[in-house]
Fold this protein.
Amino acid sequence: MSELIGIERRGPVLAIRFQRPEKKNAITGEMYASITRAFVEGEANPDVRAYVLFGSGGAFTAGNDIADFQRTGSLVTGAADIVRFLTLVAGLEKPLLAGVDGLAVGVGTTLLMHCDMVYATPAAWFQTPFTALGLVPEAGSSLIGPRLLGHAVAFELLVAGRRLSAERALSAGLINAIHEADALEAETLKLAAEIAALPPEAVTLSKRLLKGDGAAVAARIRHEVEIFAERLKTPEAQAAFAAFFATR
C-alpha cells in the first residue's frame, strides 16, 4: 500500500483517505494501485459493508498528478491500470460515500459521480479542466454526468470547465448535504455506519437496480480512455500542457 493512501477500518466501514496534502492530494499511479487493492479486498470481505473516501489538509484531491504521469508515461502506457481502477469503482457492489472538503478537481469530481452519497463542506468546490488541457471527460462522466446533472450543468462542468460551489453542487444533485468542516468526517462516517447496518444483500441488490446497466458505463470508460490517450498526442493538447507547466 502507498503511504499516500490511508486505509482504516471503522467497524463495517472502510475509510480510504488521500493523504498527500502538500500536493493537494494529487493522485499518482501508485496511489491508484493502492485504492484498487483496498476495494478488491473490501469487496471480498463480508465484514466490510461500505466505503468512505476522504481527502486531507483541506483538500479532497486535485485529480491526476500530471507531472507524475508525464514522467512515468503511465497516462498512456498504464491506461489498463487506470481503466481497471475506474471500472472497479463504477461496479462496486457495496455502497461508496465521500466527504469532500476544499477542491475536487478532474477525477476528484468525476469520481463522485460513482458515489452513492456525498457530503461536502461550504469550502468545497468542483471543477474539471479537461478541455482546457485539450482532453476529454473521463471516468464515465460523459455518460453519467448528463444523467445525473442534466445536459446544461454537465456541459458547464465537463466542457466549459466552470467551477461549481458546494451550493451549486447541492442544487445540481452532485452532493447530498453540506456540513461544516469540523463535522464533515463524523457526519459522513455516521451515514456510512447507518447504511452498513442495513441488511447487506438488500442494499447490494437495491444499489444494483438503481445503477442500472453497468456494462454501458464500463464501455464508456474504455472509450473515453482511448480518446483521452489519442488526445495526449495532439499538438493542441501538447500546447495546453506546455502552457500549464509554464505557470507552475
Remarks:
- The CA atoms of residues 139 and 221 lie 5 Å apart.
